[in-house]
Predict the 3D structure of the following.
Amino acid sequence: MKYWLAILALFCHLAAADPLTEDRAVAFTFDDLPFAAVPSEDDAYLAGMTQRLLDSVRQAGAPAVGFVNEKKLYREGQLDPARVDLLRSWLKAGFDLGNHTYSHLSLNQVPLKVFENDFLRGETVTRPLVQEEGHNLHWFRHPYLHVGKTDAEITEFQDFLTAHGYAIAPVTVNDSEWVFADAYAKAQEAGDAALAQRIGAAYIPYMSGVFDWAEKLTDDLFGHPIPQVLLLHANSLNADYFGQLAAMLRQRGYRFVTLAEALKDPAYSTPLQVTGLAGESWLERWSREAGLRPPPPPPVPGFVMQQAGRNAMAMDRGY
């Protein structure tokens, strides 16, 4: 613990001289591409939803990385060209893609070799697409934010990623946006426009509360802002409400940066160790490693949780 605190103090000292930490910044990341929590998997609907989301993100001037589960590119065992085209839409819009494994396995629940094989299977389609745009596949995001059961496993997998040219995309602002999205999609599927609107109206205030919470954790740890990394998903909710989310963050003083720019902050060199709790953000993990007790994040309104259903109550955050 003393060793970890000494390292943290050093990073805080270094960060104090970094101009990137003197204001508020956030990098946007979207998991579970090509889509998650939608009322329909019809090709036309998915294409329209994806285009609405990409248009909103681009109009907000927000760089973004989308993390792909390649299993979702298949329909009835066959690679679906329409779903591959959804990924192309992200690249053509100027955004980046990353690896989120093939089938969204948990590193905490399967042997490391099984996870590594699923990881490699998860770049089969995405890597050539990214290379077509003259880029390399570089980013990896852990499903469920499950980073490994032991410090040794964390280190071994990090070495594996480095050998394959990848860097981990951390998350500092984790949230239950996916619960809102699930409830929103179910309301749309049921044709209940009033309920969908009510869920959407509750989403932005909830996210503002999440940033209150993350900013407090950040200040307790580092004594000043750091660039945050926000976890969202490619879903109908964000296709319809990302513009309002971006406006709320602008009002809070945030500028929008690339993931690579955010990770230049020395805070992201803070060691990550096993805390015994799965699915937590890097801020929560760092807090526990420093001997702090991070408070729970803001609760999801009861009517949203009820609409999302019992699975939402049982699943880990970070899904």
Notes: Residues 1-7, 13-21 have pLDDT under 50 and may be disordered. The chain has 13 helices and nine strands. The beta strands are 24-33, 64-68, 74-75, 78-79, 96-99, 139-140, 167-168, 228-233, 254-256.
